[in-house]
Write a structure and sequence with these properties.
Layout (H helix, E strand, L loop, with lengths): L12 H5 L6 E3 L6 E3 H6 L15 H8 L6 E2 L18 H12 L5 E8 L2 E8 L10 H17 L3 E7 L8 H19 L4 E10 H4 L8 E4 L5 E2 L3 H8 L10 H6 L5 E2 L5 H16 L19
Parallel strand pairs: 5-6, 6-7, 7-8, 7-9, 8-10
Antiparallel strand pairs: 1-2, 3-4, 4-5
């Protein structure tokens, strides 16, 4: 008697391993397996342990802005390649790959939005675009955000998640630190509030310029915030750093930020802050005007 032949498998081992990919997610905090749509519905906050996973700029817009609506400013600006930089791939190739991956032209979006019916100047870094790095265009857009908010007398809310200055643009990227801070100072002279929201991670030239210059600086839980990363610092000073160094909780304890706010409470908290800051600025005399600086890219 002959045994029946085995039916060959319809899927190989690699296909089996991908079964359910995109349907379930594992929480990085507690290790629980969650339905992907459940995590997305809670804006990437674990409903079991409260761990904050990274949220895209699109997710932040939906969470923060009324109806998720943003009147975008200066969308046409795109990075150039002034140094003809190459590290195995040209800078232009890396920008094209980032644009394809994120469907964004640069590592930040800016525009006019509303929080609780109040108009604001809004900006949010796109971390997936080359690590949210700040090159000439990112710095120009932040500068224009502050400048246009000054013209339209709007408070500014800026959500930051960045690895710092963009190395492919060298000194041109570092120049954006001074330019953007100068524009922020003109906003201050109009007595308009700036709320700085520090997300994970906020480092490098962004942390060393406008990120800590908010009238109120707030952060998400456990966000990495600082100039150089802990490993770089330890290797430089050859000392072991304190536990939790450069995390939000450490910075709050040492007076570097004003508050830690869970993601799902962020919009309500910022809305309340703006209500107090805007009412407090009403009727105050304005400081003398500062002449506007010349932008590095023409407006169109």
């Amino acid at each position: 008697m002959a045994w029946p032949e085995k039916t060959p498998p319809t899927t190989d081992a690699s296909e089996k391993r991908t079964l359910g990919a995109g349907v379930f997610r594992r929480c990085e905090g507690c290790g629980a397996t969650l339905a992907a749509n459940e995590l997305a519905a809670s804006f990437e906050v674990c409903p079991r342990c409260g761990h904050h996973h990274k949220l895209s700029a699109d997710g932040w817009r939906r969470l923060f802005c009324d109806d998720g609506a943003l009147e975008a400013w200066d969308e046409h600006l795109e990075p150039d390649d002034p140094l003809r930089f190459s590290d195995g791939k040209t800078y232009k190739e890396r920008v094209a790959l980032a644009q394809k991956k994120t469907r964004a032209r640069e590592a930040i979006e800016i525009g006019k939005a509303q929080i609780g019916g109040r108009p604001i100047g809004y900006g949010a870094f796109v971390f997936a675009f080359m690590g949210g790095s700040m090159g000439s265009v990112v710095g120009e857009k932040i500068t224009r955000l502050f400048e246009r908010a000054t013209e339209e007398e709007l408070p500014v809310v800026l959500l930051q998640a960045s690895g710092g200055a963009r190395m492919q643009e060298g000194i041109l990227s570092l120049m954006q630190m001074a330019k953007s801070v100068a524009a922020l100072e003109r906003l201050r002279h109009k007595r308009l509030p700036f709320v700085s929201v520090l997300l994970h991670p906020t480092t490098g030239g962004v942390a060393a310029s406008f990120a800590f210059l908010g009238d109120v600086n707030i952060a998400e839980p456990k966000a990495l915030i600082g100039f150089a990363g802990p490993r770089v610092i330890e290797n430089t000073i050859r000392q072991t750093l304190p536990a939790g160094f450069q995390r939000s909780e450490f910075l709050l304890e040492h007076g570097m930020i004003d508050a830690i706010v869970p993601r799902l409470e962020m919009k309500a908290t910022v809305g309340l802050l703006l209500e107090h800051l805007m009412s407090g600025s009403a009727g105050r005399p304005r400081a003398p005007e500062i002449p506007p600086a010349r932008s590095s890219a023409p407006r169109r």
